[in-house]
Amino acid sequence: MAFTIIIPGIVRLVAVKTPDEVLAVNDAGMVARSLSGRGGLVNRSTAAKLAVFRTPDGDIWPAFRDRLDPLRAAHQAALEAALSDVGPLLQRIAREIAELGGYVREGAAHRAAGVIVQQAVGRLFFADYAASEESYDAACTLQTWLSAGSWSFRAATWLVRTPPRLQWPTS
């Protein structure tokens, strides 16, 4: 069963547990992925944290655009078309598949399994992508950073768990 925590001006958090609830929340019109920096404290903090994830020309990544944004729809359609042509994609990553097969069969490879997987996935999107120990370490660092959550989310969690006499007024 889903529950909602609302701290006006700071956060509106909905916790869901079942796949149907996840789908319902994802389809809700009020759920936004905006990097506008508008909204409550958590939205503004998240927008500031994710501002580094913009295209080189400063444009917002399609995943953070509004659901009905025409540019987002165009990017999704182009990506779907590119990833639907499976034959050439499998040929593009045949070497990595063979390398992973050798790793599974022999328990070892000339490079780390994570690097091999990173290269295979990267080559699905960019034919000339080349993973390295450094790129894999950077991806691990980024994942750790993103998984840590923002300070404002931790602060909001603290507020929710703090006894009422220590909380900020909510009205």
Kindly describe this structure.
The protein contains eight helices and two strands. By secondary structure, the protein is mainly α. The longest helix has 16 residues. The chain folds into two domains: about 110 residues, no CATH class; about 45 residues, no CATH class. The C terminus is likely disordered. It has a two-stranded antiparallel sheet.
What structural keywords apply?
55% helix; 171 residues; globular; two-stranded antiparallel sheet; 2 domains; mainly alpha
Domain count, please report it. 2
**Percent strand:** 5-15%
| SSE class | mainly alpha
* Radius of gyration from CA coordinates: 21 Å
Largest sheet: 2 strands, antiparallel
Mean pLDDT: 77
Helix percentage: 40-55%
H/E element sequence: EEHHHHHHHH
Q: Termini distance?
A: 26 Å
Looking at how many chains there are and whether they match, the oligomeric state comes to: single chain
Q: What form results from the Cα inertia axes?
A: globular
**Low-confidence residue ranges:** 151-171
